[in-house]
Specification:
Distance between the termini: 36 Å
Radius of gyration: 23 Å
Number of strands: 8
CATH architecture of the largest domain: Alpha Horseshoe
Largest sheet: 2 strands, antiparallel
Order of helices and strands: HHHHHEHHEEHHHEHEHHHHEHHEEHHHH
Number of helices: 21
Number of domains: 2
Strand order of the largest sheet: 1-5
Length: about 525
């Protein structure tokens, strides 16, 4: 990674030539190459666009499959893998995948973000600097929450060694940057739009008010991560975020627009037919008769109707996580289980906009804070129900009815059995939980928390799968099925990986700093060392 961090100037050039080259010497001596010094305000938007779309894995940028899909998606338990050689679903932290995906982040994503922040700071562009600081936190936070320590404050230091920031230090910086950025944006609301970003910002087209709401919403998300390790910090940051104004309307949801040139990468990887809907998703969506399943998945080619709810045809089928290699080779999981919705599976299509954060998550975060007695602008029940409505509204289910035509929010339905898995015919799988949809006003705090997190888990599908994995580690919800088997001796099938491991190239190129990072974790560099915020008993 050290060479990548030292050659930011060269990597920024990739914004204009379409892809990064491995031949540094050729670029460094090519008189026709664009250099950092030749970039100005007129080209700023192009760099910002690159920073945004690559952070969202558009155009099948590296890291989509080997980080987002094969770790985030399967550790959120949204999908189970059908490819016989994909071992992350059996809890193997495949080093080559991690190495390639994290290097790609620091090569393709981090440099243009840094450029946009630094250039704006040096050229009296406070609004643009604030917007790109918000985006920087959004981009880096999921990697921080995956590894527990990454290069952040010293990224791009032009030195041979790059220190890692520990998670609590990064959170301190994240909160500071988001607070300052939102203050700047709110002070400039009269401008309405950032002129340099209006034509290039694929999230909000430079809308300053909407970016401020996203900044506060991200602050709220990170605040709730801290509640078991530092309740005072969590409360202070959450209340400040809500007071500043978070996303409350579906119209303000943060999504990165897609196009034929910058397409949703699911439209590529789904064509490889390597994963399908999980049994957990089937259990929850079938039990709740949740109409959103129709927007998330396709019906299975060979559905099993013997376990359908009374009076409802439910042809959406899941499979258990942790299948053996032989079962994935010999059983027809791709035909018997549901693929993603057709909007995500059309090769060559733009696909759905990449979802960053929505009103539903903001409401669920506020509901979670309200359970703690924090000032969240409503009761836990009120905010929980608004979160469900916001998610339904986003997908067009504005009547808020379930598949049986009943009111969803007041329904007492609970998760159902996903039936029998193809790998164990005749063995009926138990439901993942007995938690109902209707808010348990007289229930325990933990029951109410499970309700909130279960609905948040549904709403985070699929682009925010890493956040769903983080929430699982922090809250221990939603209750989901264990793996059938784990192939990692240190991680039991009944457990969950607590972090990803540091990449092999860093042990070669940046060894001293990696060793310091391991020491700072307080445990070995493996998938069982708990991260800073993972303190719930």
């Amino acid at each position: 990674m050290k060479n990548l961090l030292r050659l930011i100037t060269v990597l920024i050039i990739a914004v204009f030539i379409g892809s990064c080259t491995k031949n540094f010497d050729e670029i460094n001596t090519n008189p026709k190459s664009i250099t950092l010094a030749s970039l100005d305000k007129s080209s700023y938007g192009l760099v910002a666009k690159r920073a945004i779309v690559y952070s969202a894995y558009l155009r099948n940028s590296s890291g989509m499959q080997t980080y987002h899909s094969l770790f985030g998606d399967v550790y959120a338990n949204y999908f189970a893998t059908t490819h016989p050689n994909f071992l992350s679903d059996r809890y193997v932290l495949v080093g080559s995948w991690l190495n390639g995906s994290l290097r790609s982040f620091y090569q393709n994503v981090a440099p243009p973000i840094k450029y946009c922040v630094d250039f704006a700071a040096n050229n009296d562009m406070p609004v643009e600097e604030a917007i790109m600081k918000i985006w920087r936190v959004n981009a880096f936070a999921k990697y921080a929450d995956s590894y527990g320590a990454i290069p952040y404050s010293s990224f791009g230091n032009m030195e041979k060694s790059v220190p890692y920031d520990q998670l609590p230090d990064m959170y301190t910086q994240f909160f500071k940057e988001l607070d300052e950025a939102v203050d700047v944006l709110k002070a400039n609301l009269s401008l309405v739009t950032s002129a340099p970003l209006a034509a290039f910002d694929d999230v909000y087209k430079g809308n300053i008010a909407k970016w401020a709401k996203l900044g506060s919403s991200l602050r709220l998300r990170l605040a709730l991560h801290c509640k078991y390790v530092n309740a005072s910090l969590a409360k202070t940051q959450a209340e400040a975020a809500v007071a500043d104004g978070v996303i409350e309307s579906v119209a303000d949801n943060a999504k990165v627009a897609t196009s034929i040139d910058w397409f949703n990468a699911y439209c590529t990887i789904t064509s490889w037919m390597e994963f399908r809907m999980s049994s957990d998703m089937e259990s929850i969506m079938k039990g709740y008769l949740d109409p959103r399943v129709q927007s998330f998945f396709q019906v299975a080619k060979n559905p099993d109707r013997t376990d359908d709810p009374a009076g409802v045809v439910f042809d959406f089928e899941g499979m258990r996580n942790g299948q053996t290699k032989s079962n994935r080779q010999g059983l027809s999981f791709n035909q018997g289980s549901s693929d993603m919705h057709k909007s995500w599976v059309t090769l060559g299509a733009a696909g759905p906009a990449w979802r960053v954060m929505g009103a539903d998550e903001s409401y669920f975060l506020r509901a979670e804070g309200a359970l703690e007695g924090w000032a969240m602008g409503g009761t836990a029940q009120e905010l929980y129900e608004k979160g469900i409505k916001a998610s339904f509204d986003e997908f067009g289910y504005t009547d808020h009815l379930n598949l049986a035509g009943e009111d969803y929010i007041t329904s007492t339905r609970v998760p159902a059995s996903p039936g029998a898995d193809l790998s164990a015919p005749g063995t009926i799988i138990q439901p993942v939980s007995t938690i109902p949809i209707a808010f348990l006003a007289s229930g325990t705090k933990e029951e109410q928390l499970e309700q909130i997190i279960t609905q948040k888990w549904i709403g985070l599908y699929p682009e925010n799968s890493h956040e769903a994995w983080t929430v699982r580690r922090i809250t221990k919800y939603p209750k989901l099925l264990p793996r059938l088997e784990s192939e990692e001796p240190l991680i039991a099938a009944t457990s969950l990986p607590t972090r990803l491991t540091f990449i092999t190239s860093e042990y070669t190129d940046n060894a001293a700093e990696v060793q310091k990072a391991v020491t700072g974790l307080g445990g070995p560099d493996n998938g069982t060392t708990k991260l800073w915020w993972d303190k719930k008993p």
